[in-house]
Amino acid sequence: MEFLIVSTLNGVIYGLLLFMVSSGLTLIFGMMGVLNFAHASFYMVGAYIAYTITALVDFWVGLLVAPILVGLLGVLVERYLLRRVHEHGHAHELLLTFGLAFIFEELVKLFYGDFPVNYAMPDYLRFPAFTVFGTDYPFYRIFIGLVAVAMFVALYLLLSRTRAGLVVRAAERLPSMAEALGHNVPLVFMGVFGTGAAFAGLGGAVAGAFFPTNPNMALELGVIVFVVVVVGGLGSLEGSLIASLMIGLFSSFAVGLDWSLAGLFSLVGLGEWARALGGVFTLTLSSISGTIPFLLMLIVLLVRPAGLMGERN
Amino acid sequence: MTVRKLGLALGLAAAAGLGAGAAQAEPLKIGIIESLSGSQTSTGRLFATAAEYVVDQINADGGFNGEPIEVIEYDNAGGTTGAADKFKQAVADGVHIVLQGASSAIAGQVTEDVRKHNIRNPGNELMYINLGAEALALTGEKCHFYQFRFTTTAPMRVNAMVDAMKEAGDLGTKVYSINQNYSWGRDMEDAIKAAADRGDYEVVDTVLHEVNKIQDFSPFVAKIKDAGPDTVMTGNWSNDLLLLMKAAGDAGLDVRFGTTFLDQVGNIANAGDTALGHYVAHPYNIAADDSDFAENYKAATGHYPVYIEPQTVNAIRTLGEALKTVDFGGGDVSVTEIAKAMENASIETPLGPITVRKDDHQAVLPVVVSKVVKDPKYPVDGTDLGFGVVKVVPGEDAIYEAQESCEMDRPS
């Protein structure tokens, strides 16, 4: 029971963190068709901006300003870089953002050094929210989860219930028709990209205070965020929420389960034999918990190539 | 090498060339094949800085073989393929000695490249000085005459840590081992199990996890809590160490950490007060050094020697001692002669002597066990925390037996 509750809690919160970073990527891909490899870099830049502002002014000001500045950065990237290569197709956009990710990493090293910086939550947020089975559950983890849920609700309502969302969806489906109806499609795209970047920036500002803020954080989270988007279905907001939670829960439960192939074989009396062979047979699930998301991605790609909630299933 | 130094070297070379056709001495060339971009830059850059600090001193004292020693930096971009490419380039550039340290995987590539090169090019050998890669295999089945290792290994660190923590009464009787699932982490796990009798503890559970893939360590912390250890021993470094310690701190887990890389730059800043009271076993701590080394280093590089810098300085100083005993009279440099001299070289440090063991070319060096304390002699990362010395274990006590898997062919 304890294992079940603690693992679920840990998994859900980690899943929500993943969603926080991948929501912007999903938005940008769903609305613009651009697979933004530099997305996790916006997350990193958000954390560094929030760190800088926290040191100068206040933690909450950092949380507010970081997404705005990262959003503006996103707007600039869309307006002056992405738009220029848009007509050449997806490969060019992909390569451009791929290159940007490296440039962001080296720029951060140039300004902030190679080492992790001291970005931490204020002390008054550092308290246990409650105690489960003798273990403190940090309030800040709950806070991360709440911010992620708020982001999901806001994005969902914006896209499905407002006029702006309608225009955005129209601009993605039939850009020339939307343009003929008098909507400024390039402006819409710029706005969407900026919003997506701002969401990543907010994610960085919130999560960076809990996890180490260092020049590698984009690289570390970048891959897993793509797994989320692929598993959830490219462009589906609900899908990426479900995928994030699945990955969070699977990784969390995997750590606690010392299952191995040898254990499976021992059910039919071949346990000793399998253990003697060693290698892959004695590999425990906990030692490959970081690989679970990729395994999940492979299975999803085989069974539902467009992802769990993808539109072309 | 910086542009300025390159210019100076070229200038000197040109001046020597103008000297009425005097015979040209062969300068000793050192190539640093290190992670100077990518995710390991923070460590790779430190190796290069510390090595160049000592070479600059040797050059100020007149260099070697009548010429200043040249240092060339090669960026392996944090991978083995990059290292293999840059090794070829270093060979083409006429490098004699290769330095590297930031990864055991890359070290494995470099040392094999050196071994193969030496087999194919007798009389034109290269030497490899391993500054920081700790996988036991490097001085085990991969050992060879032209490789030297100037850092500790898992048994050295764990044995010293166990002794010091036991003496201080901080070890307890239950130890949990959590490590990264590759050569280094496995070495650590083996060493932690092997030291159980020495430290009179029971290993309650062991876990191996992937390197740098896990963002959330709270499931592991839940597992540690279940096992109820007094001390958690880990060889984790970088994010894997920070995330683990933070997750344990946030969960209010009452355990002591025995670590090996807590002194990595930025760790203490990130962990904050969570780090207080935890242990690290490392090859050097300038707090135990009352010489003016730390100040001199700061004057030259802008910061106190941290993390892997002191061991790198000691490695190149030992090379400098070896160079003093060979003389090529301004002619061609023989790497084999330098390697033979390395076997007999030794230096004195304020923490004790450092020598090279002939059997496997592992350096016999002291291991320091330190504890994170408030208001130390040298605060780190801009905090009021730092590493207080608990115990200095002399090299001869810290060293383990040479591995039988090392079969070294010696040149006659």
TrEMBL record, chain A:
Alphabetical UniProt keywords: Amino-acid transport, Cell membrane, Membrane, Transmembrane, Transmembrane helix, Transport
Membrane disposition: Multi-pass membrane protein
Listed InterPro entries: ABC_transp_permease (IPR001851), BCAA_transport_permease (IPR052157)
Pfam family, one: BPD_transp_2
Spans through the membrane: 12-30, 37-53, 59-82, 94-112, 139-159, 187-211, 217-237, 249-270, 276-303
One GO MF term attached to the UniProt entry: transmembrane transporter activity
Listed GO biological process terms: amino acid transport
GO annotations of cellular component type: plasma membrane
Origin superkingdom: Bacteria
Principal location: membrane
CDD domains: TM_PBP1_LivH_like
Subcellular location: Cell membrane
PANTHER family: ABC TRANSPORTER ATP-BINDING PROTEIN, BRANCHED-CHAIN AMINO ACID TRANSPORT SYSTEM PERMEASE PROTEIN LIVH
Family statement: Belongs to the binding-protein-dependent transport system permease family. LivHM subfamily.
Record-given protein name: Branched-chain amino acid ABC transporter permease
UniProtKB/TrEMBL annotation, chain B:
Domain Leucine-binding protein: 27-374
Secretion signal, residue range per the UniProt entry: 1-25
TM helices/strands, residue ranges: none
Domain of life assignment: Bacteria
Protein name: Branched-chain amino acid ABC transporter substrate-binding protein
Pfam families from the UniProt entry: Peripla_BP_6
Family statement: Belongs to the leucine-binding protein family.
Alphabetically ordered keywords of this record: Amino-acid transport, Signal, Transport
Provenance organism: Kaustia mangrovi
Alphabetical list of PANTHER family matching this protein: ABC TRANSPORTER SUBSTRATE-BINDING PROTEIN, LEUCINE-SPECIFIC-BINDING PROTEIN
GO terms (BP aspect): amino acid transport
